[in-house]
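Support request, please re-run this one:
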Amino acid sequence: MVNETPPRSTMRLTRRGRVALIATGAVAAATAVAVPLALSGDDEARPTALTIPEGWRSGQVYDAVDKALELPAGTTKKAVPKAGLKLPGDAGGNPEGYLFPATYPLDAKSTPQSVLSYMVNTATKKFNGSQSTAGADRNAMNLYQTITIASIIEAEADNKQDMGRVARVIYNRLDHGMPLQMDSTINYALGRSTLDTTTRETKTDNPYNTYARMGLPPSPIGNPGDNALKAAISPAQGDWLYFVTVKPGDTRFTADYAEQQRNVAEFNKNRGEAKKDG
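Re-run finished. Output below.
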């Protein structure tokens, strides 16, 4: 039996799988974790490599390239339209999702165009393999949609082990005609990383608002790594429609709304106790 979507005013699925009960005003929040830029070389010398972590957005990548190449802020972003990046037609010239997380060599001849091209070419080789294309077909998605799903998985999963189940929740909600209701997509639209999303924000008219709009957002919301891509290609098997991280390392998946409410209550209790201790 397929559970019906609960009223949006009652429940929402948020980034990292946490859920808040909006009707009671209990909105979950957490501190965003900043990922440091990993560069080789000492502080005074120009670095010889640039490491892009999984999940970084294009803006973060552009800033990192500027810093690594010792260029004025905004240089790499401005270079994108003329960089000649070999992107799929679905991307519309937007490299989001195709700036593959990896460590890239730098030398005296490196330019924003050459570094971005290296990233996009690496992503293309990863994404265009037979396993990726077969997985997309199996899930009734095209490759660009699969990468978009992988980017959401990267933003939502609490850890590597949960990625396959997060992927299954996404596919199940799409199959059942349910909105994804993911805070990570709203965060992308607003250029931030937070768990504290307001009811008003869930009602905004924005193509990345997966509360107000059905289906996937129009593009990836970050640059997924290998593990997220594998999860998008081969999701775990299950009937889950909801998930909530009750506490670090304890993410619970369910298809039952009542059970989800109990899990959410436990999460909110744990969060309240943590605030008292803090």
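Residues 1-5, 7-12, 14-43 have pLDDT under 50 and may be disordered. The chain is about 40% helix and 10% strand.
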